[in-house]
Amino acid sequence: MNTAAVPNTVPNPAAHALRLNIEGMSCASCVAHVEKGLKQVPGVVSAEVNLATEMAEVGLACAGPVQERPAAPWWPVALAAQLTAPLAVLMVAEFFGAHWMLGGWVQFALATPVHFWLGARFYHAGWSALKAGSGNMDLLVALGTSAAYGLSVYELLRHGAHCMAHFYFEASAVVVTLVLLGKWLEARAKRQTTEAIRALNALRPETAHVRHHGADAEVPIAQMRVGDLVVVLPGERVPVDSEVTEGASQVDEALITGESLPVPKPPGDKATGGSVNGEGLLLIRTTAIGAETTLSRIVRMVESAQAKKAPIQRLVDRVSAVFVPIVLAAGVLTLLAWGLSGAGWETAILNAVAVLVIACPCTLGLATLTAIMAGTGTAARHGILIKDAEALETAHEIKTAAFGKTGTLTEGKPELVSLEGAACTRVELLTLAASIQAGSAHPLAKAVLEKAQEQRIAAPNAEAVIAIPGRGMLAFGDAVKPTAAEAMRKLKALGVCTVLITGENRGAAEAVAAQLGIDEVHAQVLPEEKAGILARLKESGRVAMVGDGINDAPALAAADVGIAMGTGAEVAMHAAGVTLMRGDPALVADAIDISRRTYAKIHQNLFWAFVYNVVGMPLAAFGILSPMIAGAAMAFSSVSVVTNALTLRGWRGSDA
Fold first, then answer.
1. Handedness of CA 614, 616, 622, 624 (dihedral sign)
2. To 5 degrees, how large is the angle CA 147–CA 23–CA 110?
3. What pLDDT shows up at residue 2?
4. Which residues of 174-189 are buried (b: 16+ CB within 10 A; e: fewer)?
5. What CA–CA distance (Å, rounded) separates 410 from 531?
6. Mapping DSSP to helix (H, G, I), strand (E, B) and coil, where does residue 419 land?
7. CA-to-CA distance for 211 and 284, rounded, in angstroms?
8. Could you give the CA distance from residue 243 to residue 654 in angstroms, rounded to a whole number?
9. Tens digit of each residue's pLDDT (9 = 90 or more) over 373-399
10. What DSSP line would sit under 76-125, residue for residue?
11. Do the Cβ atoms of 331 and 355 come closer than 8 Å?
12. Residues paired with 284 in a beta bridge
């Protein structure tokens, strides 16, 4: 197996981490071997190897770059198929009663390049495993096909090319070709599971129109600095995270936040790098570049989630580590049992070959990984960022979802909800109030001015205004988010209990809870008390905490799964295992639903992986399955579990 670290234009911002490409892995046994080897290297503090992405994340004292995997080449499979086709035709013809025969040396000439050139990867990887004192799927294939090939060569040299001796070149060549085809299809399918990361990386423009001293110049993104003024033309992608300084437009942020509708961007609003500008011209000021941009953080989080192992995958790895020695032992027993029973050593070798070929642990290794990758990728496309595989796995067991109030279920800013005048109309009162509040920066004053602007009221300038604290007469409220009620309904449909935990007074908390149909309310709670409430809630099952503020961070960390609003405080997102890229509480139910569907796929894949091995090995050992059928079944098993995992990509959730 080979490792490679190749520089990329976008550095890996994960501190003290290096990502390596690992070539030649074929099963979970390889993963265990590579991880063990990496951890023995001086300076390595941790190592996580992912079979599906063929990458390793290694903890070091310095950061390193990450390289995207190239597409798997198709030509070895095509060439192997062309060389094997004449041999396979003979095999199929014999099945229908036709006894066609190619000369022994012709069969030898067709089968040899398939084995030792196109199938060389199996010998290289198998030999590496033997030297390391371990086994893998490649070792099984190499041993099995070599036995059939070697027996054929023996018969050819012993009896000559034109005798009626039995040759098994077609069996060995067909198995190698089928395994190559299965690995190619598997690699192609695995590449689709990383589509989310590739789609996000593709959002990065290479250049930007930077305005300097009144002149615009096209500048590479890598040369930009914080504070640069950038012109974004209609239809262009916003190159970096920024703040709008001039102009107004609608910006499409669908691929970043999952928000399906364009978002208005007036001056003062934030614009996210990678989003698409609408019909207006914008002048923006850069606020973040490189690894600090929102897009880079999203890619980093998705990569991390796909690289980490879920608890169930660690169990699968331990099973796979002992599986290959068991298969080798079964192959030897099959060989001896048939050979010593008088059936003939040729039959014994073919049955042993079938056992080694069909008992591929590759399916076990892929069963969990591909489902997790497909699940996290699908979640990312819908604005749900899952930090690690453990959070994805744990979320399927959530029984209670606890919410903060301000900024989570409500808009997080005061709104003028009632206006009553004793001796004037509401319009007159709002006009006077807006005049008085025109020079104030108080949040309630802003609420008054927003209401006046909404009703298109032009407020006259007020003079000699004096602020008197605590003497305001207007009624204000924090509006509930439009999707909050639907979010609670969706959670109840999933069987999840809802809880409100807030530091606000009980009256305000219970009013929101009654409006949304929340099951349980805890009001006037200090930040340090939230963890205690969560501990009590955990007594009845797994608990998720949903919040957006600094005061929610301890509770997010204390919950089984912390879910942070991406529109909230940075510390909340760091403390949470899941981040919602748009402040939509309905995404909480979507995150739980994706977790449940992903976990169901994991169970389905593991079930079928075990079925293939438990059923297939005895059939091969008793001579019911030929090596060709065993090879086809092995290839089909790997492709089927990956394809099953990819069905997660059709999930629609709240966007449907």
1. positive
2. 35
3. 46
4. bbbbbbbbbbbbbbeb
5. 22
6. coil
7. 10
8. 29
9. 888 888 888 888 888 778 888 899 999
10. HHHHHHHHHHHHHHHHHHHHTT------HHHHHHHHHHIIIIITHHHHHH
11. yes
12. 230, 244
Asked if 180 contacts 77 with a C-beta cutoff of 8 angstroms, the reply is yes
Cα separation of the two ends of the chain: 44
Which tokens belong to 190? 């695995």
Residue 438 has pLDDT above 80, yes or no: no
Among 80, 162, 64, 167, which Cα is nearest to 117's? 80
Backbone angles phi, psi at 174, to 5 degrees: -65, -40
The 10s digit of each residue's pLDDT in 511-550 is: 889 999 999 999 888 777 888 899 899 998 999 999 887 6
In whole numbers, what is the pLDDT of the chain averaged over residues? 78
Question: Where do we find the tokens 């001015």?
Answer: 449
Among 448, 422, 420, which residue's Cα sits nearest to residue 434? 448
Count CB neighbours of 483 within 10 A: 17
Determine the number of helices (DSSP H) and then strands (DSSP E) in the chain: 22, 22
DSSP string across 158-227: HH-TTSS----HHHHHHHHHHHHHHHHHHHHHHHHHTHHHHHHHTT--SEEEEEETTEEEEEEGGG--TT
Alpha carbons 632 and 176: distance in angstroms, whole number: 10
Alpha-helix runs per DSSP H in 414-559: 426-437, 443-454, 484-493, 506-516, 527-537, 553-558
Answer for the pair 86, 110: CB distance below 8 angstroms, yes or no.
yes
For the chain, the C-alpha Rg in angstroms (whole number) is 32
Q: Residue 526: what are its φ and ψ, rounded to 5°?
A: -75, 155
Sheet holding 46-50, edge to edge: 2-4, 17-23, 55-59, 46-50
Per-residue model confidence (pLDDT) at position 66: 41
- Distance from C-alpha of 562 to C-alpha of 549, rounded to nearest angstrom: 12
Which residues make beta-bridge pairs with 613? none
Question: Which residue in the block uniquely carries the two structure tokens 């300097």?
Answer: 212
Instruction: Take residue 329 and report the two structure tokens written for it.
Output: 């032992």
Nearest to 174 by CA among 633, 653, 649: 633
pLDDT number for residue 597: 93
- Residues 602-644: pLDDT tens digits? 889 888 888 887 888 899 899 888 776 776 676 677 778 878 8
The answer to whether residues 350 and 630 touch, using CB atoms and an 8 Å cutoff, is no
Least confident of 42-51, 105-114, 419-428: 419-428
Q: Is this prediction's pTM over 0.85?
A: no
* Residues facing 230 on adjacent strands: 210, 284
Asked whether 353 and 546 are in contact (CB, 8 A), the reply is no
In Å, how far are 445, 544, 592 from 596, measured between CA atoms?
Answer: 46, 14, 6
pLDDT of residue 509: 85
> CA-CA distances (angstroms) from residue 468 to 223, 255, 473?
51, 48, 12
Q: Tell me if 143 sits within 8 A of 136, measured CB to CB.
A: no
Residue 20 one-letter amino acid: L
Confidence band of 7 (pLDDT split at 50, 70, 90): very low
